[in-house]
Write a structure and sequence with these properties.
This protein is mostly beta strands and 228 residues long. 14% of the residues lie in helices and 44% in strands. The strands form two sheets. It has an 18-stranded antiparallel β-sheet that branches. The longest helix is centred in the first third of the chain and has 31 residues, at 27-57.
Amino acid sequence: MSPPVPSIPQAIRPGGGIEAPAAAPAPGRRGGYSRFVAIAKLVLPLVAVALFALVWAWPNLRGGDLRFRLGFSDFVTRETAGPSMINPRYVGTDKNQQPYSITSNVARNSPADRMKIDLEVPKGDIVLNDGTWLMLSADAGVYARTAKTLDLTGGVTLFHDSGYEIRTDSAYVDLDQGTAAGDQPVHGQGPFGDLRAEGFILLDKGKVIHFTGKSKLTIWPGFRTNPS
């Protein structure tokens, strides 16, 4: 005689009724979920690869002038002042293919002229073929891209690597010709001594400087024009 088969217990409802066991999920649902997982594993990597390729190729899709390049570290949109660029850098060459660069804290298109750029705290570096350089800075400036000129205002400083420095309130710089000029009071100093004038004209990237108006030169003791 076979041993009795134990009966499977059934859940009893609080009201006394018997609750049937929970039904197992249908085979069709399991199959649909598996297909979704398989498709997701295939599509998501392809989307990631496509996004990476777009990010890598985007800079190459935009053309530019080889003689004038612009770089910036951030872009800010202001409702009142219009689009602005933070820490831009402008690079170009003069008529003799000598390089120059201009940087500033903030730059934005001039509302009066689309080809001009208003700069906050501009700084410029001009390099000559013989290796000497001229550095300039100011509180504000306007850069004309086509004319390659720079109007500087407020705390203008021009420094040449030979050791002299010129300070004034405003200056007009022609980057293509390598000249600069100003009609405001000038304070200059260098290895020779101290100089004050009513204006200045700088030629040939600083190799020649003419001081205009009433000028006063104080030569420091021990300075000699011919060391030999």
